[in-house]
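Support case: user asked for a sample of complex input and structure output to validate their parser. Sending the pair below.
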Amino acid sequence: MIKLISSKAASILCRDDDKETLELYEYAIYITLSGLFHILTVLLLGICFNMLIESVVFYGSFILIRKFAGGYHAKTPTRCYLFSVLVSIAVLCSIRAVYAFYSIHLLVCLLFVELICALFVFLIAPLQSDNKPLDEKEINLYKKVVRVIVSVVFAFSSVLAYLGIEIVCIPIIFGVYMCGLVLLMRKVQIYLYKNRFLH
Amino acid sequence: MKNKKPISTQMKSGIKKGLSVALKANANSSGCYIIYQPKVPKALDKFKGIK
């Protein structure tokens, strides 16, 4: 549906332009509308769960790292949307569970796991997708950017944990978990793809 | 009498400028933050900061 809207909107916008410009703006409209749709869904889920702040902070921290780290991409937009919704619901339920069983020991465990995920992101990122390959210069630049971002995010979440601001700290921790998860999924996807061609 | 661009042309120009910001952001990152990355058009290369 978003593809259809993008196509029609681009054809109106680029009526006097060449085919290349039309494709470009169709792509731009598509990614803008998809992004907005996902953000609205996240906000709606946050409102439904009565955890709007947590929802926004989680998604914000996830986007911040993922933008440069890359990771798993679904093969179709529908799968993508379903995956995002399911993961958002799972994360919000997990955050609620953390609040219910909250203790200093639990917080320390969460931070420890976050450190492992952050290290994983630090070492593995960026991972390119098949539809948007990266050249060597981009990989080297994004590697540095991701390392800085994930270090800052981890440090920030640690400071917030120390200050007792769990409403922001815990969603950030889950944002880092998600980044680690999508990178791991992409790594497995690449490994399975390579093995399929070797055997 | 000055020739004034019709509002629709001005609007299209404004929308294209806004979309160019989205294209620049996308070109200078590893991809979409959503879990689906559509195939990028070749013309996106002109928005890249690294060449």
